[in-house]
Amino acid sequence: MKNVSLFLIQALIALSLALAAGCSKKDDKGNDIPKGGLQVGQSYQGGIIAYVDDTGKHGLIAAPSDQSAGIQWYNGSYFLVTTGTEIGTGKNNTDRIVQMQGDGAYAAKLCHDLVIGSYNDWFLPSKDELNMLYQNRLEIGGFDYYICAK
Q1: DSSP helix/strand/coil, 104
Q2: What is the model's pTM?
Q3: Residues 11, 2: contact at Cβ < 8 Å?
Q4: How is the chain split into domains, by residue range?
Q5: How does DSSP classify residue 62?
Q6: pLDDT in tens, the chain (150 residues)
C-alpha cells in the first residue's frame, strides 16, 4: 500500500467535478444515473464517486486505479502558481499548472491528459478536495493506513 502523499500523486490525482443533477435520470453528459441516486463508492463516469454535495448535483469522482508509480510534481522548473484550496478549484488549479509548466511528464499534466473511457475532464485535487477524498477513503479504497508521524 502507498502512503497518503504518494496516493495523492498516484491514485486519486484524477478527479472529475461533473456529477449529475440529482432529480434527473440522466446526468449533464447524458449518462444514466444509478437507481437510487448517486452515492460515495459507486462506479460512475469512468471512476468512483468520492463525494456528493448536499444538493446532490455536484461532487468528485476519483480515478479507479493508480495512474503512475512515480510521477514527479514539476517539469524541471519551479513556477509560483497561486491555487485555490476549496472544493471546486482543482480543475482550475491543474489547468494553471499545466499552462505554466507546459509539456512533460509531471502529475498535473498526467491528470490533464488522462482519458478513461470517454471522460477527459480529470485533474489534481485541491487541498479541500483531497481532504474529502481522505474522509471517504474507506468507500473509495486505495489509501494507506500507515501515515508517517512523530
Answers
A1: coil
A2: 0.71
A3: yes
A4: 4-140
A5: E
A6: 333 333 333 333 344 333 322 233 455 566 666 666 788 999 889 999 999 988 777 889 998 887 776 788 888 877 777 789 999 999 999 999 999 999 999 999 999 999 999 999 999 999 999 899 989 988 888 665 444 443
